[in-house]
Amino acid sequence: MVVSLRGWWREIGDLVLPAGCAGCGAARAVLCTGCRALLYGARAGTARRVRPAPEPAGLPPVYAAVEYAGEPRSVLLAHKERGALALAAPLGRALALSVTAVRAHGERVADAVGRGGGEVLALVPVPSARAATGRRGHDPVRRIAVAAAARLRREGLAVRVLPVLRQRRTVADQAGLGAEARRANLAGALTAEGSRVFAHGESVVLVDDVVTTGASLAEAARAVRAAGGRMLGAAVVAGTRSAREEPG
Predict the structure, then answer these.
(1) In whole angstroms, how far apart are CA 216 and each of 29, 82, 88, 135, 229?
(2) Measured between alpha carbons, how far is residue 52 from residues 5, 31, 56, 67, 92 in Å?
(3) Number of domains in the chain
(4) pLDDT (tens digit, 9 = 90+) per residue, 144-199?
(5) What is the 3-state secondary structure (H, E, C) of the chain?
(6) Residues whose CB falls within 8 Å of the CB of residue 94, separated by 6 or more in sequence, listed in order
(7) Across 208-234, average pLDDT
(8) pLDDT tens-digit series, residues 131-149
(9) Structural domain for 43, as ranges
(10) Spatial distance between the Cα atoms of 49 and 58, rounded to a whole number of angstroms
(11) What are phi and psi of 152, to 5 degrees?
């Protein structure tokens, strides 16, 4: 109830209070035209595959819409840490670009091995630490995933958000941890809960806001596979500079 009340007040504030652009600070715009173009418009282009270096074992193909720098970084932080909930829709639209790229990659792989893909996509958000979610008053990744799913449905794609990953033990905040420390922190920490979590013929796309070392996505992929999910790949809004970009 506390989380929902905080979110409600933030949504009211977004509607009533004038604000500068979360990306560049332009006056009286939650997100200006230029920053929207950086996230998902002509200036953004298409999502690209990114690979953290070093790449953790078990990491599925990861696609990012933008680099985690400049205005996109500011927008993500405003949504995640400052509760600017009106940004979920444009961030979801950027995430939808990455999901589409993951799906295209999966179809190419399926064609190469003579295996048909599933008709439904399950977007599975990577969960934050419980303490972080409580401090923020909302679940930013799940909110962006819901916005992305709504966008993809309007484009004719059968998709649902499946928030089934749970932490089965306490983990430390990942901020400030290096690649090895992140992997150790998360190893075996996640599980997929629920009876018959993944439907027959359903492909799974992990979703997150940012990829840095890839440790969170690798652990989430392990939990999905352990629950019988057919892992297609991972989609994020942004990738850090340490996660190098590759074509296709």
Answers:
(1) 33, 22, 21, 20, 17
(2) 37, 29, 8, 13, 23
(3) 1
(4) 999 999 999 999 999 999 999 988 766 656 556 565 666 666 666 788 887 567 87
(5) CHHHHHHHHHHHHHHHCCCCCCCCCCCCCCCCHHHHHHHHCCCCCCCEEEEECCCCCCCCCEEEEEECCHHHHHHHHHHHHCCCHHHHHHHHHHHHHHHHHHHHHHHHHHHHHCCCCCCEEEEEECCCCHHHHHHHCCCHHHHHHHHHHHHHHHCCCCEEECCCEEECCCCCCCCCCCHHHHHHHHCCCEEECCCCCCCCCEEEEEEEEEECCCHHHHHHHHHHHHCCCEEEEEEEEEECCCEEEECC
(6) 39, 40, 44, 65, 66, 72, 237
(7) 93
(8) 666 677 778 999 999 999 9
(9) 2-246
(10) 16
(11) -65, -35
Q: Is the pLDDT of residue 59 over 50?
A: yes
> What does the alpha-carbon distance between residue 63 and residue 246 come to, in Å, rounded to a whole number?
9
| Amino acid, single-letter form, for residue 100 | T
- Please report the pLDDT score of residue 96 as a whole number: 97
